[in-house]
Specification:
Helix content: 25-40%
Strand content: 15-25%
Largest sheet: 9 strands, mixed
Shape: elongated
Radius of gyration: 29 Å
Number of domains: 3
Distance between the termini: 59 Å
Number of strands: 16
Strand order of the largest sheet: 2-6-7-10-1-11-12-13-14
Number of helices: 15
Bound molecules: adenosine-5'-diphosphate, zinc ion, magnesium ion
């Protein structure tokens, strides 16, 4: 089959993490799992006659922050539009959105591809506010309605058709998640429906050809599914063109278990939304004061941080560990800057020493225990002291690991642990180590037998025992050599 070029544009809905729903005082719940249906509603969000919408200040605030983070032009004047359609989960009979004059337009997002080696920038057409619908629940042969979600605030981000591969889409979405999470704008969990992605896909033969007919694929809620849906749709379209046929613009749903898409509606039966300016809301004017505040407000652009980490020469595992959670990243930055004020060292000198311990075991431990970094049992100062000791170079890697582990479990000072374990004692000489190794071999005849019978992986048992007995003062490599000789 001949080569086709893939073109992708995204429409992404992100649930804002504001205190209130978009146009009423109802609480803006982030998670509906444990909420009794229809307990978080009012006349406005259920569309009762006569109820009027008022834009919640903190919804606007979050939307503007997102606009800024996406490097959008924030328009001094924008508007809301009414998008009418009939569906039971839409209590007002229309959705309030921003079609003609969105608040945030013309943005861009940069991110890395191929494990932080290649940089890519894609363009944002607009990032507009709109309210969410309720939920229709089908159970026991009945259709039921829950309006708890109705009226919760969304920003829909529309990108230009800039993407050329599913990898680009996934890496962009990960950066987008970091942007909203690091700036406390949204949680953007795909599985929880806090981020919903519609993927527009077309193919063409050459960059000089016009874009092909696009297909919008909906109902995708994990990165894995997004990748599968894109690859499948690309192949499906190529096959049609190869057969000399064409198709019309359409919306398709993704059936993940089947691994294929199905037609939802074609352009001919597209809904007519009868858009018109929302009469119940005045135009939205952003005043100078708000612009001033916005200009001084600090926004974290995760990509810039990743760039910096890249410049320190960190490998992808280190970068991944640091950026997985903003609190871990902040911890790294705090330790780094405090160490630089403590000593004559430049950040580059310490960066690798610190990240090594934070990536493993600190971040790993946090993840394992679902704990946050503020529950660490040792202080910044204690960690700094540990790093200075590691930098001095007199402790072996095994010993440093043991110290760190002990600090994590007990919160003791590294100094104290070093004394307890005898790490400050003069190094063991080889005879001493060999003696201990012999002891271990005589104490474990059955394992020796297994080893000699061909189960050579049992050597790790012996190595482990020796490491314990020497308090890590020997390296696994030396231990292996000793046992290989002893067990011959
Ligand atoms: P509409 O006005 O029909 O909603 P838009 O121009 O707003 O269409 O585009 C909607 C989405 O589809 C955007 O994310 C855009 O990038 C994407 N898109 C537009 N044309 C194509 C195409 N030929 N191939 C892939 N994606 C496209
Ligand atoms: Zn309400
Ligand atoms: Mg559009």
């Amino acid at each position: 089959m001949s080569e086709y070029i893939l073109t992708i544009g995204l429409e992404i809905h992100i649930k804002l993490k504001s205190a209130n729903k978009m146009f009423c005082q109802c609480k803006n719940e982030q998670n509906f799992d444990n909420l009794v249906p229809n307990t978080n509603i009012c006349p406005v969000c259920t569309g009762q006659p006569g109820a009027l919408p008022t834009l919640s200040a903190d919804v606007l605030e979050k939307a503007l922050l997102l606009g800024k983070a996406l490097q959008c032009k924030i328009n001094e004047t924008s508007r809301f539009d009414r998008k009418s359609y009939f569906y039971p989960d839409l209590p007002m009979g229309y959705q309030i959105t921003q079609l003609y004059h969105p608040t945030n337009t013309q943005g861009q997002v940069s991110f890395f591809l191929d494990n932080y080696t290649n940089e890519r920038t894609i363009h944002i057409q607009d990032a507009h506010m709109e309210n969410d619908t309720g939920k229709m629940i089908h159970a026991e042969g009945q259709a039921m309605l829950d309006f708890n979600r109705a009226g919760t605030p969304l920003v829909e981000i529309v990108t230009l058709p800039d993407f050329r591969s599913s990898e680009e889409v996934i890496e962009f979405l990960k950066e987008l998640q970091r942007i909203v999470r690091y700036n406390n704008i949204a949680d953007a969990d795909l599985e929880k429906g806090q981020m919903r992605v519609d993927v527009n896909i077309s193919v063409r033969k050459s960059e000089s050809d016009p874009f092909g007919t696009r297909v919008e694929v909906k109902n995708i809620n994990s990165f894995g599914m997004i990748k599968r849906a894109i690859e499948h749709e690309k192949a499906r379209q190529e096959k049609i063109y190869e057969a000399g046929e064409t198709f019309t613009q359409q919306t398709r749903g993704w059936d993940d278990p089947k691994g294929e898409s199905y037609l939802m509606r074609s352009k001919e039966d597209a809904l007519d939304y009868r858009y018109f300016p929302e009469p119940d809301l005045p135009p939205l004017h952003i005043n100078d004061e708000t612009f001033k505040r916005l200009n001084t407000q600090e926004i974290v652009i995760p990509h810039n941080i990743i760039k910096q980490l890249n410049e320190y020469g960190f490998n992808k595992e280190y970068i991944n560990a640091l950026i997985s959670d903003k609190t871990i990243l902040d911890y790294f930055t705090t330790i780094l800057s405090s160490l630089t004020t403590w000593s004559e060292w430049k950040p580059e000198d310490f960066a690798k020493l610190i990240v090594k311990r934070i990536a493993w075991p600190i971040a790993a431990r946090m993840k394992e225990n679902f704990a946050t970094i503020d529950t660490l049992k040792f202080s910044h100062r204690q960690f700094n002291e540990f790093i200075i000791k590691a930098q001095a170079g007199s402790l072996m890697e095994n010993q440093l690991k043991i110290i760190m582990d002990e600090m994590l479990s007990t919160g003791k000072n590294s100094e104290e642990i070093i004394k307890e374990k005898g790490f400050d004692a003069p190094a063991m000489d080889n005879d001493e180590i060999a003696l201990l190794a012999k002891e271990i071999v005589t104490e474990n005849p059955s394992i020796v037998e297994q080893y000699k019978g061909g189960k050579t992986t049992t050597i790790w048992f012996f190595i482990g025992q020796l490491m314990k007995k020497t308090w890590g003062k020997t390296s696994p490599k030396i231990a292996q050599e000793i046992f290989e000789k002893l067990l011959k």
